[in-house]
Amino acid sequence: MKYTIAISIIVASMLAFASMQGFTGHGKGGGGSGDRAQQVHRDQTFERDRMQDRDRIDVPDQDRTQDRDRVHLQDPSSMRDQDIYGNDLMTAAERDQFRKQLEKSKTIQAREQFQAQHEEKMQARALQQGKDLVPPGQGTVYGGQLMSVEERNQYREQLRVLESDQAREQFQAQHREKMTQRAKALEVEVEEAE
User: Fold this and answer.
1) What is the pLDDT of residue 33?
2) Residue 83 CB neighbours (<10 A)
3) CA dist 72 to 60, 105, 106, 108, Å?
4) pTM for this entry
5) Quick one: CA torsion of 97, 103, 109, 115, rounded to 10 degrees?
6) Closest-CA residue to 56 (of 11, 9, 4, 13)
7) Which of 101, 146, 153, 174 is the most exposed place for a label (fewest CB within 10 A)?
8) How far apart are CA 21 and CA 113, in angstroms?
9) pLDDT tens, residue by residue, 163-178
10) Where would I find the H helices in the chain?
């Protein structure tokens, strides 16, 4: 948490400095202040969203990923519904059965195999039903209103399997740019993630 606050302060300082350069005419090009103000606003919004995404992702970073935490549970029967991949697509009986089956899997390899099969089943179900599949720890997707259900699910799955913070940040930045371009082409505003 202290790390996130420190990063936020540094970024805010850099943005303030950059905006001061733009308004005083010392920035690149010396273009109109309206264009520069819009760019500063986009940069600030981007940074805020990036930090929110990092906060959502950093929670499981204590043990690196929730997937690894789930595999090593001592008591799968105590697993919360929201920690089960695809829980929104399952009935209460299916969630209970999932816990029981996970408990029957005595080795880490057996649990990983069972969970991989379960994830494939949930992905197929989400595709068949045309529903979003939100992995534990993830929230809304930037530009999600401009994406199909399948695109949102692919994005979330790609984000979920990335190993490092740097890879996730790069992936999210590329996605944000793609959605910004799509919004411009459609002449719509992108709703910010909560």
Assistant:
1) 53
2) 14
3) 14, 11, 10, 7
4) 0.53
5) 30
6) 4
7) 174
8) 55
9) 898 999 999 999 999 9
10) 2-24, 33-61, 66-71, 92-104, 108-129, 149-161, 165-186
117 token code pair: 């099969």
82-92 pLDDT tens trace: 888 898 899 99
Q: Provide the mean pLDDT of the chain.
A: 74
| Lookup: tokens for 134 | 């939100």
Q: What angle do CA 141, 143, 144 make, to 5 degrees?
A: 55
DSSP assigned state of 91: -
DSSP classification of residue 76: G
In terms of Cα–Cα distance, which of 75, 84, 69 is closest to 103?
75
- Classify 133 as helix, strand or coil: coil
> How many residues are there in the chain?
194
Is 50 exceeded by the pLDDT of residue 152?
yes
Q: Any idea which residue has 């943005």 for tokens? A: 15
